[in-house]
Amino acid sequence: MTSRIGDVVVDCADPPLLARFWCEALPEPKAVKNRLHFDVCPTDRDPDEELERLLALGARRSSIQAGGTWTVLEDPEGNEYRDAARLWRLPGHPDWARLR
After folding, report:
1. Which residues contact 77 (CB under 8 A, 6 or more apart)?
2. For residue 62, which of 46, 74, 77 has the smallest C-alpha distance?
3. What residues contact residue 69 under an 8 Å CB cut-off, 6+ apart?
4. What would the pLDDT profile of 5-50 be if each residue is shown by its tens digit?
5. Are 69 and 86 spatial neighbours (Cβ–Cβ below 8 Å)?
6. What's the CA dihedral at 75, 73, 38, 12 to 10 degrees?
7. In whole angstroms, how far apart are CA 92 and each of 9, 50, 73, 85, 97?
8. In the chain, what percentage of residues exceed pLDDT 90?
9. Which residues are within 8 A (CB) of 54 and not within 5 positions of it... i.e. 6 or more apart?
10. How far apart are CA 77 and CA 63, in angstroms?
11. Taking Cα atoms as reference points, which of 69, 11, 60, 16 lies closest to residue 39?
């Protein structure tokens, strides 16, 4: 049996403060493929719209190929993450149980 982490939630009141903290705490430049990455799953818009929004923010398509319905992107510093090609519903949404 295998399992996977479906979500990593960063719940913070001050995202810029948290970003500055991690930039100072982990200042080394990226040298190898990340061992951990985020899966970005749109919950309130079409997946194609979310992909375009992320690209407009500065993401770029990665040369790494993902399986299934994922698109691998890189943030402006080259850190990989995946963008879901389907809409994810949050718990409490009427379609949540059906679409999970």
Report:
1. 30
2. 74
3. 84, 85, 86
4. 666 667 778 888 888 887 787 767 777 777 778 888 777 778 888 8
5. yes
6. 40
7. 17, 22, 29, 21, 9
8. 7
9. 40, 73, 83
10. 14
11. 69
